[in-house]
Amino acid sequence: MDHFVAPQFIDVEDRIIGPITTRQFIIMVIGGVVIFAAYKILDTAGFILLALITALAVIVFGFVKINGRRFHEFVGSIVEAIKRPKVRVWYKYVPISEVMADGRNKPLDTIKTDFVPRQSIQPKKLRDLALIVDTGGRYQG
Fold first, then answer.
1. Beta-sheet strands, E only, within 18-136
2. Does residue 19 belong to any structural domain of this protein?
3. What is the pLDDT of residues 74-103, one digit of tens each?
4. Nearest 5 degrees, angle CA 31-CA 52-CA 63?
5. What is the pTM of this model?
6. How far apart are the C-alpha atoms of 64 and 80, rounded to whole Å?
7. What number of H helices and E strands is found in the chain?
8. Does a structural domain hold residue 118?
9. Domain assignment of residue 48, given as a range
10. Is residue 32 a part of any domain in this protein?
11. 3, 20, 70, 71, 110 from 26: Cα distances, Å
């Protein structure tokens, strides 16, 4: 049987210059280009303002981690949570027999549903079910 070496530390990024990773280096280069363009185009006050904002963004997006996740992943999670609906609506399954001939569903107030009352489970029955689950089905009750 062949033996293969399983890769380890796959979540560690490659380092290119000391402790700087490739992603951090690219972010720093982009920030440097933006600051250089601001230096050539803007006056002193505008350059200083844009340079500070750009440097802050480079530091935050390049080096800050929140709960072990990169900052841009954290921001993406926040945006996704904001866009996601707060209430999830459950639509009851309508059986085929309740669909009209033209393919539309019948109005919900005309559909007859079978109500099944909730049954309580006796403590002994619950204990037996727990044993069956815990033993992987070996206990038969």
1. 20-21, 65-66, 69-70
2. yes
3. 999 999 989 887 777 766 655 555 555 555
4. 55
5. 0.54
6. 20
7. 4, 4
8. no
9. 15-83
10. yes
11. 38, 10, 15, 15, 62
